[in-house]
What does this fold into?
Amino acid sequence: MGNGEGVWYVSVGVSLEVVLVAKEASQGGVGPRKVRFVYTRSPEYRTIAINGAWGGLTSRGEVRAHLFVEGSLPPEAEEVQLDGEGTVLSTEEVWPQDPETYRTVEREIQVSVVMSPLQALALSRWLKEKYEAWEQNREAFEAAVLRGNKDA
It folds into this structure.
């Protein structure tokens, strides 16, 4: 957590409370030597899929990220031509503009997060660690996905 020289690093999962407890202990103070984190879920908890983010710094210097899922919008409508017996003869998509020259891509924001710059740095390091672990085992993960293993 720290380097022993009074510089303290905050990583994902380590709160300011833990940093303060460790700092107090290193300065000869009396206090707990362990902190247990208990994970609970808010009533609004949900799992979301994202494939992008947009954001920046707030006026207070915090990092704000809007996490979104991106995809093509469906056509405005479909027109189906039927024969006299109800058999479909043709189906035509109706677009608000020519889909050959212009297509709208929707970025549906799922959630926005605001965090301190230090927490953003810690989160980026944590994400990089997860990417590197995936990269080292990429073939195994891809094989599992091909087999239909959703937990890969």
